[in-house]
Amino acid sequence: xxxxxxxxxxxxxVTKVHRxxxxxxxxxxxxxxxxxxxxxxxxxxxxxxxxxVNAWLExxxxxxxxxxxxxxxxxxxxxxxxx
Length: 83
Hints:
Layout lengths: L8 H7 L10 H14 L3 H20 L4 E4 L6 E4 L3
Antiparallel strand pairs: 1-2
């Protein structure tokens, strides 16, 4: 008989979930629905990804970085400013 597979600490951290209830504004709800359609991810994955991207951006900016988006057609750089 084979031994049960043990999860590593990293695997356990990935599978641990926390249930949270949030109140979204109408605009945020619309953007959530739009993002779900654009990415084919579910709402949970979309919200998780948004939180992680936001944390990364906030940390980069607080450490002195600037974040830009390059326009596809013109090549113009647009600086991202988080309020």
